[in-house]
């Protein structure tokens, strides 16, 4: 099972690298395709749009496909999208290629989270999902700086080639290590959409959009905040972003066990601490050491929110969790767009470069309000129970049954 989780984490590592490395290579890409840097920034939006559109559509199309096969198909699409990005001769085709690369993002995470939760006993599902998310956070420490350095020294196209290679390795690992998980008898697009109609699922997605928007309100402007307010040199921003990634990794490591122990309290606490840390950052950003310490906590608290939101959506969708799990990543990308927009409005209004921290704190507080509303209106007393299968036993139970039958056979 650890090898299967490692394969899923490798997929997440490739996704995180391709999503964020583009931001560090915008000047090189702009020169390469003959557009301005702001115009090249639309490539980030193209990828995000692909995530928002692709998560529900591809999950719906693959509703009856066995999970392992669907993971392989989505990973192949991811590789094709990044190869097309590397080969795109002009901005228009590069825009289309980035949209294509983003299409499988949400579905990969959604299907991967369901697969990960079924690889272990139900009481350890949160830890398994968080292990997959570790690939995304480690990408911010290793993958994004490495991809940025590769693109700056050899050319931006090589960065996308490197991501495609990661995707191929992940594809091989998925084929080798992830076990077959048959779909339940009730699987299908109608079944998944019916689960999406649950009010708790809708509130969970709204919590992700609003609450996690607070994280992106600051993350989107982190580099100019640190250079204009804290006074760091441009050359220092790469390792500072890696430091931020370390905080996210620490938050992900503790999110899994806490989600397994107390799902909703972990979500409440994560949103409260995220908002509090953002307020603290507004005051510490003027001094280097306090700003960097707060930065690590901010990354940790942001990551602490992701796993419980994912697990809660899967629990509320009952035995059709794949669409809800995938749509969560559409919600995160909407949070990215909305948080960045609101943070930019605060800066444009003349409130100062540090003002996105207060905007983010307000969004985190609003997200906490939505999460509390969902908890208060939840009439399902088993609200934290994750249904890991619709009509087949969980892999852990299946293994136990097989072992019991084998012992009985030998005794006979």
Account of the 3D structure:
With 412 residues, this protein is mainly α. The chain has one domain: Growth Hormone, Chain: A. The chain is built from 18 helices and no strands. Helix 4 (42-61) packs across helix 6 and helix 7 (125-154) packs antiparallel against helix 13 (237-261). The two termini are 31 Å apart.
Short description:
By secondary structure, this protein is mostly helical. The chain is built from 18 helices and no strands.
The number of domains: 1
- In the CATH hierarchy, the architecture is Up-down Bundle
**Beta strands, count:** 0
Give the distance, in angstroms, between the N- and C-terminal Cα atoms: 31 Å
Global structural class: mainly alpha
List segments where confidence is low: pLDDT < 50 over at least 5 consecutive residues. Answer: 383-412
CATH topology: Growth Hormone, Chain: A
Count of individual helical segments: 18
Q: Return the average pLDDT rounded to an integer.
A: 84
Q: Helices and strands, in N-to-C order?
A: HHHHHHHHHHHHHHHHHH
What share of the residues lie within helices?
over 70%
Main β sheet profile: none
CATH superfamily: MFS general substrate transporter like domains
Please indicate the percent range of residues in DSSP E strands (runs of 2 or more). Answer: under 5%
């Amino acid at each position: 099972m650890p090898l299967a989780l490692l394969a899923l984490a490798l997929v997440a590592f490739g996704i995180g690298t391709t999503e964020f490395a583009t931001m560090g290579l915008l000047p090189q890409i702009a020169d390469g395709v003959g557009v301005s840097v702001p115009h090249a920034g639309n490539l980030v939006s193209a990828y995000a749009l692909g995530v928002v559109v692709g998560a529900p559509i591809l999950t719906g199309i693959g509703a009856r496909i066995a999970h392992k096969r669907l993971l392989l198909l989505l990973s192949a699409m991811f590789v094709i999208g990044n190869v097309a990005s590397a080969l795109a001769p002009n901005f228009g085709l590069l825009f289309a290629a980035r949209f294509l690369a983003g299409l499988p993002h949400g579905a990969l995470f959604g299907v991967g989270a369901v697969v990960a939760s079924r690889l272990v006993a139900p009481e350890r599902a949160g830890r398994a999902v968080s292990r997959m998310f570790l690939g995304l956070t480690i990408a911010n420490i290793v993958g994004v700086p490495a991809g940025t350095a590769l693109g700056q020294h050899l050319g931006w196209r090589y960065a996308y080639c490197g991501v495609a290679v990661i995707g191929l390795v992940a594809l091989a690992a998925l084929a080798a290590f992830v076990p077959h998980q048959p779909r339940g008898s009730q699987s299908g697009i109608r079944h998944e959409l019916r689960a999406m109609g649950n009010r708790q699922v809708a509130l969970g997605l709204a919590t992700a959009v609003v609450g996690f928007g607070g994280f992106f309100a600051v993350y989107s402007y982190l580099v100019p905040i640190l250079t204009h307010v804290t006074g760091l040199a441009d050359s220092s921003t790469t390792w500072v972003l890696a430091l931020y990634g370390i905080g996210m990794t620490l938050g992900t490591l503790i999110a899994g066990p806490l989600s397994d122990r107390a799902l909703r309290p972990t979500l409440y606490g994560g949103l409260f601490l995220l908002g509090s840390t953002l307020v603290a950052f507004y005051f510490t950003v003027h001094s280097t050491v306090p700003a960097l310490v707060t930065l690590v906590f901010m990354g940790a608290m942001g990551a602490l929110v992701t796993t419980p939101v994912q697990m809660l959506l899967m629990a509320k969708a009952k035995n059709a969790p794949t669409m809800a799990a995938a749509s969560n990543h559409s919600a995160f990308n909407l949070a990215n767009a909305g948080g960045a927009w609101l943070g930019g409005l605060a800066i444009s209004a003349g409130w100062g470069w540090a003002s996105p921290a207060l905007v983010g704190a307000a969004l985190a507080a609003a997200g906490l309000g939505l999460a509390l509303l969902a908890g208060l209106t939840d009439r399902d007393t088993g609200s934290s129970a994750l249904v890991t299968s619709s009509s087949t036993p969980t892999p852990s139970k299946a293994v136990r049954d097989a072992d019991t039958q084998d012992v009985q056979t030998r005794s006979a």
